[in-house]
């Protein structure tokens, strides 16, 4: 029998736990639904289905060990009652529906938000690794290592990159767990000044790295159903985050209904409370110019704020953005698939997104074409109209 894809409940992104803690304290009864979507055309998952089912069964047998709980408790924003809850926590396979029709993988997660929020990242990692095992069983590892080394050399080449900082964001679409660990190990050894951490809690703990992350799209999406009014949903989500973390983890995600609509809500109050913003769709140059202009309109020096970039970055693209704006603000970059799945053929472009909360449709109106996910076109049109943005 092959070794499990996921061997620890910490083998996920930090922001799943930070959001989960907020859900425990503020919306423990919320019910949600997530849906899997593979954006890469023509992918046939038929031969992967049995292995994916077995890996989900293995995943749902895991519990956090006392050592792992101790590690989480050592993070100053994780609270004791959340640790007590996690001591009892286990993922429940009854919340996952999985099938394959004509090669297309049909995966839905439905149940209490508190008990389903940790499924997304490990399920994507499972699907990615199983697919890679099946379709690329004997990759050229020397070529993969050579490509990784060229990326490392690109960063280490020259004094003008010394202020460049990036983290690993590559768990969900990685080639394999073992390759992910090798990549992060090499980055931390060879680029100790530029490589500042990883979103993966298991690797952060094992390698002594900084765990990196705050919130994801689902957090702001859920408030489309949880907030007092749809037009106030972004502000309600940001208020909830501030209430939970009191100034810690202060990076706001900007593209749930688009950057323009976000900035209309991100007034002086929030601009002073949050340390910075994260870009995850659209043109990063245009996004940066809008962010800088917004801070300046509010008479805030953008050099006192952090801008974080995490949208399908390559190392070369991240360095290009850094060189363009290095004197205007502090920047950081989260680089994922480009590092953790540049092994064989092009990696799968796949997501699991929240599509409903408390029986109501929710959606992300992305700044990038093709990233919007919603099963209710009427709600999507309503959301666009309320936030005064173009409907997809």
Automatic annotation (TrEMBL):
CDD domains: PncB_like (cd01401). GO terms for biological process: NAD+ biosynthetic process via the salvage pathway. Transiently phosphorylated on a His residue during the reaction cycle. Phosphorylation strongly increases the affinity for substrates and increases the rate of nicotinate D-ribonucleotide production. Dephosphorylation regenerates the low-affinity form of the enzyme, leading to product release. It catalyses: 5-phospho-alpha-D-ribose 1-diphosphate + nicotinate + ATP + H2O = nicotinate beta-D-ribonucleotide + ADP + phosphate + diphosphate. Residues 164-389 form the Nicotinate/nicotinamide phosphoribosyltransferase domain. GO terms for cellular component: cytosol. It is an enzyme of class 6 (ligase). Pathway: Cofactor biosynthesis; NAD(+) biosynthesis; nicotinate D-ribonucleotide from nicotinate: step 1/1. Keywords: Glycosyltransferase, Ligase, Phosphoprotein, Pyridine nucleotide biosynthesis, Transferase. Residues 10-128 form the Nicotinate phosphoribosyltransferase N-terminal domain. GO terms for molecular function: glycosyltransferase activity; nicotinate phosphoribosyltransferase activity. Its EC number is 6.3.4.21. It holds the Pfam family NAPRTase_N. The modification Phosphohistidine is found at residue 217. Catalyzes the synthesis of beta-nicotinate D-ribonucleotide from nicotinate and 5-phospho-D-ribose 1-phosphate at the expense of ATP. Belongs to the NAPRTase family. NCBIfam families: NAPRTase, PRK05321.1. This is Nicotinate phosphoribosyltransferase. It comes from Zobellella endophytica.
């Amino acid at each position: 029998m092959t070794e499990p894809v996921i061997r620890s409940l910490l083998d996920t992104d930090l922001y799943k736990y930070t959001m989960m803690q907020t859900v425990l304290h503020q919306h423990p009864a919320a019910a949600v639904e997530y849906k899997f979507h593979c954006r890469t055309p023509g992918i046939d998952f038929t031969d992967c289905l049995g292995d994916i089912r077995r890996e989900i069964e293995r995943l749902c047998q895991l519990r956090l060990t006392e050592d792992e709980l101790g590690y989480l408790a050592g993070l100053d924003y994780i609270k004791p009652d959340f640790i007590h809850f996690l001591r009892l926590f286990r993922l429940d396979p009854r919340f996952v529906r999985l099938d394959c029709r004509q090669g297309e993988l049909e995966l839905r997660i439905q149940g209490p938000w508190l008990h389903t929020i940790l499924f997304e990242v490990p399920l994507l990692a499972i699907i990615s690794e199983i697919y890679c095992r099946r379709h690329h069983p004997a990759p050229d590892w020397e070529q993969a290592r050579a490509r990784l080394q060229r990326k490392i050399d690109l960063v280490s080449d020259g004094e003008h990159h010394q202020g460049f900082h990036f983290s690993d964001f590559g768990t969900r679409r990685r080639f394999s767990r073992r390759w992910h660990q090798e990549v992060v190990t090499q980055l931390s050894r060879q680029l100790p000044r530029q490589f500042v951490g990883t979103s993966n809690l298991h690797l952060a703990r094992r390698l002594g790295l900084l765990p990196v992350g705050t919130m994801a799209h689902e957090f702001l999406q859920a408030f489309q159903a949880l907030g007092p009014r749809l037009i106030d949903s972004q502000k309600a989500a940001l208020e909830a985050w501030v209430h939970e973390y009191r100034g810690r983890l202060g990076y706001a995600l900007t593209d749930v209904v688009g950057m323009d609509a976000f900035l209309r809500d991100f007034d002086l109050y929030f601009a002073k409370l949050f340390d910075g913003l994260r870009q995850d769709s659209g043109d990063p140059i245009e996004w940066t110019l809008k962010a800088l202009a917004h801070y300046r309109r509010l008479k805030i020096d953008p050099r006192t704020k952090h801008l974080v970039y995490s949208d399908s970055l390559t190392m070369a693209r991240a360095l290009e953005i850094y060189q363009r704006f290095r004197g205007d603000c502090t920047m950081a970059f989260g680089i994922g698939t480009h590092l953790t799945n540049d092994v064989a053929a092009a990696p799968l472009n796949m997501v699991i997104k929240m599509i409903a909360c408390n029986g109501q449709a929710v959606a992300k109106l992305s700044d990038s074409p093709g990233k919007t996910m919603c099963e209710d076109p009427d709600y999507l049109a309503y959301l666009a109209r309320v936030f005064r943005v173009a409907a997809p």
